[in-house]
């Protein structure tokens, strides 16, 4: 039984009569009447809505016994010349003034020199092999050969890194491989005044430490939607001048699975780190470590018009291969956001956790003055709960405020090593001038805020600050963690040629511990490190698209603060240089 459409008569005779009339009308209408000129007055513009369009749900069946044949109609145009007295007025098109487009070059080199015998080199080139393939090479160097005042030991440093990468954008996948080599030299020059070393002892210290890093990596990304979405891998070898060595291997593929109208994204982790130190800080025995982390992180993302919810969890299996100690870990991965006021107020929050791999390489990059005698173990980040609000104060000013509460087991804390000279005189890090890593269970609560402003296309400003508190289980203090820290930055394009910028960093008070060689004659002493400002500025002039010069001033306040206990930094620094772009 067929349904009647509402508003249409159901009488079959009326239907037949109307169909015959409509079938005959097109032929005689075009033969006997000429098309006239009509005037249409538009009262208001028509704004189409989606509901105005009728969507055909199915193809109707034609049950007519006779189909009408189209009648052929021939049109002809009779052209009559018409004299026109209309003369268009000449005018100038009004439009947006276009900014001159910068020329793009595949190579640039930047070279700078400054006081403290500072040298800076930055080189990069990108060669297009084909439309879908490219090969990039980068070289970076930063060194200072000058000596700090009132420092007995060598304060020079040296950091050079060479990188190369190949990229391929195929039909189904984008992929690339890369390799790098890095050479770093630093010195354990921070002798404690409390130790009172004589000149003969100081002259016999070999304070140099050299680090080497070699790494290869790759990435793969699916272009079309598929179960496998991509992945990354990294292989890294890190070693130093004191016969320490470390291997790191990471594999991180990602997948997605449709569940109804939603998608479940899944990240898989395999992270291995293993190495050895030639000796311990107080013993001559080798110190070995080997940790393997296996994990999976499924997430279900639900997006609404004004909200987004991500529900997931991380499951890890941690293996301490050296000590034959294995454990399972489960962490929450829950995030949510709600747009309260369009663009201006978005509320967000979450509870996340994870098993974080620590490595000798990562600890060195955070503190170059650690001793090659560290204990390496993962950090159990049980949970990190946070709530916040972000958005815009105006069309050009954005903000973000956040409060968090984090609980971590085996969190690494840098603390100065005890003086341990007797019998170890040939080791340059045993004079209280190096740092070890102490693991403790730490609870951190913090409040963070930032404002970012794009005043116009030429001026960008930003400021952020964070206040933190710490609770430790075993240690007296959360060593070397600041309570207050913040920064300010600004970039300004002054006309077509000049450009300038500034950065200001503030780090609050921190605490460390001085431990003498003999606890029979002196007690350990907590040392409070003063807070400091570090003010930096830069100015440059661009002659053309290829050539520019620049000047940088660092630590303008000439504040020789201590970043780590007994380690003063360079005072006022000035550096000038030139940058040149070209095609190779």
UniProtKB/TrEMBL annotation:
SUPFAM superfamilies: Porins
Region forming the signal peptide: 1-29
Protein species of origin: Sinomicrobium pectinilyticum
Subcellular location: Cell outer membrane
Entry keyword Ligase: no
Presence of keyword Transmembrane: no
UniProt keywords, alphabetically: Cell outer membrane, Membrane, Receptor, Signal
GO cellular component, as recorded: cell outer membrane
Protein name listed in UniProt: TonB-dependent receptor
